[in-house]
Amino acid sequence: MKTRSPRLVIVSARAPFVRTGSGIVRAPGGLISALLPLMRRSRGTWIATGADREACDTSELPFRVRALALPSEIRSAWYAGASNGALWPLSHGFGEVCRFRAEQARAYFEVCRAAADAAAEYALPGGVVWVHDYQLALVPALLRARRPDLTIGFFWHIPWPASDSLRVLPWASELIEGVLGADLVGLHVPRYVRAFRDALDELGIAYVNDGESIVVPRGARHTRIEAWPIGVDVDGWASLGRDETVAAEAARITADLGGGRVLLSVDRMDYAKGIVERLEAFERLLEQNAEARERVTLVQIGVPSRETVPAYRELRQRIEATVGRIQGRFGGPRRKPVHLFARTFDSTELAAYYLAADAAIVTPKRDGMNLVAFEYVATRPRPNGRLLLSTTAGAADVLTEAHLVNPYDEEGLTSAIEDVALAPETASDIARMAALQARVSQLSVETWASGFLARLEQVTEERVPVRAQETRLAASARVTRAR
Ligand code: ADQ
């Protein structure tokens, strides 16, 4: 499908480039690698609300990157406060961590207004704007009010909050109205689309079910809410997995770790990723199983994250203390059962660990999707290794052949880790990994990005009068009216 990429404006919290000790470099992560080629082709504008201005000085690029000039107290109240102190925990079911403060909500509204102003300024007539994530959820409606000529897409990268959770957000109604300014709203999996429908019910907003997607009439237009599961740069990870230098590094890692079984976890240090709970489950395994004490090693790669938010600083201390305790109880001069790396790895280093690992332990307490699960599968040149995955990650709805576990079930988590670590490999394991590899190949992040944009174009073209649309859909679907 052809997309209208020549007029694309992207709005996101993060910029495609970051400043590091060695200069301005491409920001890590699959989303950036998927969107960069699109932006190069489109010669459009990337508006980054949370970026530092220097990192946006990209005169050699065929597209513009614009950072917003925001006072630091507004930026902090928006990012550390409303976004990561309220919306993030709310959406991941951590109600007790949420703090709702009026000045943070005001900052959130202000940043969204500034982002909408910038997008309105840079978008060409009839252009396409793609807004990303929970930090900028009001932008679609604010932008629509300024520029009704635009086609607006929005992607929410985390779980859509359960309606009970949403009830406690003082500005829930503004949040939903903000999102509904888009023509197409993407969520990772159908489960989140159903949660969005619950929120519409809760707020008495009328909608039409259309298969697994939802259509919300909005005057002369409508908003479509659909599942668009993201993926990773499959070819990039697969080619690292076939690289001889990476394979040699993987062999060295295995040897350095004592030649036993290697378990690997890779996460941003975030309480939603269940890192402490996973370490505790591993500690129970070491208590119970002599073979695990002798030959199983857990490598936890955890990049520090959002350290301006108190809950994140405390988490890092808890992780370090738990690793220290396990080490003290089960470590020895020649044996270290847990290795913790608290820093960013480049993709070549990560790929070596993905190859070295007999199993990836991906056990977030909740996760929108989880790209690490995809990366582990994509990197392996042969269908070996095991993926242990939480049922509470969006990825579990897609990667159904993984070993699934409920991360809240303490004994269940310990015994699942024991199984993937120590059970001999069977034909069924190989068949499962082969099926996972086929699935991951279908879901590349490039396909996701270009597919979403093509669908956005299609959805806008089907701008039939809303009544006719409702009548057509009503024949095969339930029509819900405002309660
Ligand atoms: P995140 O919460 O950041 O993303 P995830 O999907 O796992 O979570 O992506 C993390 C990315 O960071 C992966 O590409 C991983 O390789 C990388 N990474 C992690 N630790 C690293 C380290 N130490 N060094 C280098 N790289 C590291 C949000 C949502 C997810 C959703 C994505 C995409 O929370 O649920 O899958 O967006 O929509």
Automatic annotation (TrEMBL):
InterPro entries the UniProt entry points to: Glyco_trans_20
Biological process terms from the Gene Ontology for this record are:
trehalose biosynthetic process
Q: One Pfam family this chain carries?
A: Glyco_transf_20
Q: What is this protein called?
A: Trehalose-6-phosphate synthase
Species source reads: Polyangium jinanense
Gene3D superfamilies in alphabetical order: Glycogen Phosphorylase B
Task: Name the protein family.
Answer: Belongs to the glycosyltransferase 20 family.
For molecular function, the Gene Ontology terms on record are:
alpha,alpha-trehalose-phosphate synthase (UDP-forming) activity
Q: Which domain of life is it from?
A: Bacteria
Which sequence ranges are marked TM in the entry? none
